[in-house]
Design brief:
- The chain has two domains: 237 residues, 3-Layer(aba) Sandwich (Aspartate Aminotransferase, domain 2), CATH 3.40.640.10; 91 residues, Aspartate Aminotransferase, domain 1, CATH 3.90.1150.
- With 346 residues, the chain is α/β, with parallel strands linked by helices.
- It contains 14 helices and twelve strands.
- Bound molecules: ligand TLP.
Length: 346
């Protein structure tokens, strides 16, 4: 039986050309900044995001946590959206690694109301933690791959500037936002002091992320990468996969978005299955199963028996992500199987 795996866009396997590019990459000791392939990738990324410099790191989590540490002092507060990855899925790292607390604010579709942001900034008073950083996410994973509108980002930038706060963007899937809207990575990154992007999600590289910012920011980021055990020596082998991914797999993300839409619209027809189609803006489909008699975990287990893998994201929420390995035929097969299983009320 064929397996169709929608659990994440992190699951992709490098193809033979990517493996060949990796095998042939010139390498050096990157802790000494002497790996030519990593240096090239960092230049490409600084250029693409319009920042002075970039640093290759092992993961999106490491990129975000390095940025938080550079921008803050222990005891500071970081404003983020309540469903943000840094708040929900980074193992409490901001508290442990940077000694900061997060101040989560609810924002529909992952988009914060500028007034709520302003209200959350702490007054200068010795009782309060000092607000230091605003961290946004684009696209927003837990909200279903939603795109953060640039105009809203600019409004928050204004507030940040007025209060002398730094801005960080978790742009693990900024590639998707850029392809979906036609807005460049650079334009999206401009309002931020730092931005992280992942190569190992929709782009399909096996390992690696990057954090971009000013030269001074990256100098400090370099120290934290070492401190976190992230100095990887001849990691140009990995950077070569990332360079291949940017060249070959960036623009094709539109196909993933198209397939996610088809899947979402079909699933939304099944009784008890609700997909808020407004959230299906890129490659993530969140299925609300609260009207089904079965839990998300039970539905995921049944789908698994039929060769379809999805993720129970919450007791009544399932996530399906389209990516490099999901074909039009697989979307059709998935819809056929789900139609047989779920076109009558559960
Ligand atoms: N997201 C993973 C899981 O952790 C949920 C996934 O399968 O989607 N920022 C965002 C917005 C992310 O979605 C992720 C990974 C990260 C950061 C962390 O990246 P890694 O896994 O490389 O540390």
């Amino acid at each position: 039986m064929e397996t169709i795996d929608f659990r994440s866009d992190t699951l992709t396997q490098p193809n033979s050309e990517m493996r060949e590019a990796m095998a042939n990459a010139p390498v050096g000791d990157d802790v000494f900044a002497e790996d030519p392939t990593i240096n090239k990738l960092q230049e490409v990324m600084a250029d693409l995001t319009g920042k002075e410099a970039a640093l290759f790191v092992s993961s999106g989590t490491q990129a975000n946590q390095i940025a938080i540490n550079v921008h803050t002092q222990p005891g500071n507060e970081v404003i983020c959206e309540a469903n943000a990855h840094i708040y929900n899925y980074e193992a409490g790292a901001p508290a442990l690694l940077s000694g900061v607390q997060l101040h989560p604010i609810k924002g529909p579709y992952g988009v914060l109301d500028p007034e709520d942001v302003e209200a959350a900034i702490r007054p200068t008073d010795h009782h309060f933690p000092q607000t230091r950083l605003i961290a946004l996410e684009n696209t927003h994973n837990r909200w279903g791959g939603t795109i953060y509108p640039l105009e809203d980002i600019k409004k928050i930038r204004k507030i940040a500037r007025a209060h002398k706060l730094k801005m960080h963007l978790d742009g693990a899937r900024l590639w998707n936002a850029s392809v979906a809207t036609g807005i460049s990575l650079e334009a999206y990154a401009k309002p931020f002091d730092s931005v992280s992007l992942c190569f190992s999600k929709g782009l399909g590289a096996p390992v690696g992320s990057v954090v971009c910012g000013s030269r001074a920011f990256i100098e400090q980021a370099h120290s934290y990468r070492k401190l976190y055990g992230g100095g990887m020596r001849q990691a140009g082998i990995l950077a070569a996969g990332a360079l291949y991914a940017i060249e070959h797999n960036f623009k094709r993300l539109a196909e993933d978005h198209r397939r996610a839409r088809i899947l979402a619209e079909a699933i939304n027809q099944f009784p008890g299955f609700v997909v808020n189609l407004k959230t299906v803006q890129t490659n993530i489909v969140i299925i609300d199963t609260s009207l089904c008699r079965k839990s998300a975990a039970e539905i995921v287990a049944t789908l698994d028996e039929h060769g379809i893998k999805m993720m129970a994201f919450a007791p009544t929420r399932i996530r399906a992500v389209t990516h490099l390995h999901i074909t039009d035929e697989q979307i059709d097969t998935t819809i056929d199987i789900m139609t047989k299983l779920y076109s009558v009320k559960q």
